[in-house]
Amino acid sequence: MDVAPQSDPSRTVVLQVVPALGGGGVERGTVEMAEAITRAGGLALVASQGGRLARLVEAVGGRNILLPLATKNPLGVWRNAARLAALIESEHVNLVHARSRAPAWSAWLATQRTGVPLVTTYHGTYGEELPGKRRYNSVMARGERVIVISRFVATLVMRQHRVDPARLRVIHRGVDPAVFDPTAVSGERVQKLAEAWHLPEARPLVMLPGRLTRWKGQEVLIEALARMSRRDAVGVLVGGDQGRGRYARSLLAQAAQLGVTVRLVGDCEDMPAALMLADVVVNASTKPEGFGRVVIEAQAMGRPVIATDHGGAVETVDHGSTGWRVPPGDPTALAAFLDHVLASSPERLAAFGARARASVQAHYTVANMQAATLDVYREVLEEHAQARERKQVIAAVAAE
Fold it and tell me: Strand order in 261-266's β-sheet?
């Protein structure tokens, strides 16, 4: 079926494809775009194998399509391509937006069959350790427009996949400053978390949000706590272990050996309140992150932020103005900056927090991300409409 794209995104049907709708940044971005598409008057379809955020897709007016898109099995990818092609035709989909590699291969095949344009979002620094991985990753650079979440990722995509810069669009991820607003968080919410997490009173809290995995730098933070001049700081690690119980136990053993206090509190549904507990928020990733949403969430809450000096954090943390950056994997440098922040006056930290929140409001909001992505949809659909018109003119001339 030859689908006729429409140039107005308020009249389009957009299909987003992701493996599942868990609780990560990719999935939250999918829900946020479903909301934007719906608000613009379009139909937002999300194909995935489901998950806890699926209910939010429905809540914002979108529709969930359950498909086994998490599979990496080549046969499963081919089957999913046929399923997506049938969905595109039955729902008169105008544009497909792929956000993850396995479903992106199915989406690419489906759009090749149906002639519907494909947009991809290149979310991170995918590994290339195994043979063939660069080719596997390359599907995320095959969209007619490739959205990248930072200038850092843009450089990586151009270098690794030789993508024409004209096809790239840098669209930073964002937060909702009305949700991540220090004035909107009640003391009751903060106290509830403090009690649930058994946090000691009158001791500075150093928080590292992020799933428990080695490259997120939890070990670096624990080592830094041991090297601080101030010995009463408490490390609060917010994030689930995702089955990595051995790693979680090793972190507690490391803390005990070094004589520092650490709390592993698991996942948190109320991150604005969690961040209000922190005296300083740390991003200690040892590998460059494509963006680092935790950083802007903390900045939106006016918290002092220390981040590693690579990846997306270079763009979101203005060293000495909206936060501080330290070399990756350097616990001594991190300890020095932790001591520096905790020794700073409340007035100085408040000024840092105000500048950081203002930066987020200007550059890193959900609304900015939604508007910029809708602009990409418009751009691609207008090109397809113009190409269709040219074909019709050529056909009419040939028929005369």
Answer: 261-266, 234-238, 205-209, 280-283, 305-308, 324-326
Q: What CA–CA distance (Å, rounded) separates 8 from 329?
A: 48
Residue 366: closest CA among 31, 32, 21, 16: 32
pLDDT in tens, 309-367: 999 999 999 999 999 999 999 999 999 999 999 999 999 999 999 999 999 999 999 99
Which residues is 147 bridged to in the sheet? Answer: 121, 169
In Å, how far are 195, 198, 271 from 187, measured between CA atoms?
12, 16, 14
Closest CA to 29 of 39, 40, 17: 17
Question: Mean pLDDT in the chain?
Answer: 93
The separation between CA 351 and the C-alpha centre of its own chain, rounded to angstroms, equals 27
Cα 114 to Cα 1: distance, rounded to the nearest angstrom: 6
Provide the residue type at 56 as one letter.
L
Q: Which CATH superfamily is domain 182-363 in?
A: Glycogen Phosphorylase B; (3.40.50.2000)
Cα(103)–Cα(18) distance, rounded to whole angstroms? 6
Measured CA to CA, the distance from residue 364 to residue 88 in angstroms comes to 32
The residues that bridge with 326 in the sheet, in sequence order, are: 308
Cβ contacts of 75 within 8 Å, gap of 6 or more: none
pTM of the model: 0.89
What residue ranges of the chain are covered by domains with CATH 3.40.50.2000? 9-174+366-399, 182-363
Consecutive 10-residue averages of pLDDT for the chain (400 residues): 40 93 87 96 96 94 96 95 97 96 96 97 83 90 96 94 95 95 96 95 95 95 98 95 88 97 95 97 95 95 97 95 97 98 95 95 96 97 88 75
Alpha-carbon 149 to chain mean position? 8
Measured CA to CA, the distance from residue 228 to residue 339 in angstroms comes to: 6
Q: Which CATH superfamily is domain 9-174+366-399 in?
A: Glycogen Phosphorylase B; (3.40.50.2000)
